[in-house]
Amino acid sequence: MSRIINVAAAQLGPIQRSDTRRDVVERLLAHLRQAHAMGCQLVVFPELALTTFFPRWYMEDPAEIDAFYESEMPGPQTRVLFETARKLGIGFYLGYAELAIEHGVKRRFNTSILVGQNGEIIGKYRKVHLPGHAEHEPWRAFQHLEKHYFEPGESFDVWRGFGGLMGMALCNDRRWSETYRVMGLQGAEMILLGYNTPVHNPPAPEHDDLSMFHNHLVMQAGAYQNGTWVVGVAKAGKEEGCEMIGGSCIIAPSGEIVAACSTKGDELAIARCDLDLCLSYKSTTFNFERHRRPEAYGLITERRGAVEPAPEVAITA
Q1: Which regions span the lipid bilayer (predicted)?
Q2: Catalytic site residues?
Q3: Whole-number percent of the chain with pLDDT over 70
């Protein structure tokens, strides 16, 4: 028997610095209502979906910085999203900047949550692969200070929800094969992935014309090699003078794009996703138990920043 989820990739156009949380939440609510009207059970929003991409600026005033973060979820301005989800019976994935106080220490993360159709949080993920830089680099047309504003998360996990095993990732995570494989080894059947990606890469402008190709390449490969659905969703368009790619899409375990957005504005791409399609790949070509041989990979281990080389292998004629 098939396990079907109707999924909406809820792309957002640009969010300017002057846009209020109320303005942005209204756009998210419009996506929820439209997706519900089209029979969806799950809506996937982008990374940092509640604000402009603030790491493009170097800021020192703590109050100015804190204004971009959520100290609770749901909070006063986001509670309506959870209430609407519960009323409509529709779940969602949401990326945002998290400000947490843990053991008396203030911590900042680039975070996403998965919310069920009952309006309750199923799981929370903190971005592992932070791109960019930590120090102010004035030579750039815009900054990419994720290493300055966030600390990295610690793990990739999966959660039971929507009739299957769901994983989460964020933006730069999608470029690393380990992201998909760690969740694939846990049986992930759908990976939800929001991103904010500029067209221009200041350290390597020769990559600019390939930005959309690379965006789809890594997600399609991750889906196929791990027999999982991948839902990649952008915040796109010209945001505060920075052009960001779109290309939001839903990718089947075959690696094929089955639905995609065609603009750089607020748009839904919807697909009927059968989680049982994962079995066709997980039980044959990518049956890890039968075919995968980690003992032969010669993996290195990292200890306190030092790299320990793999043991030497004697080669005989």
Answers
A1: none
A2: 47, 127, 171
A3: 94
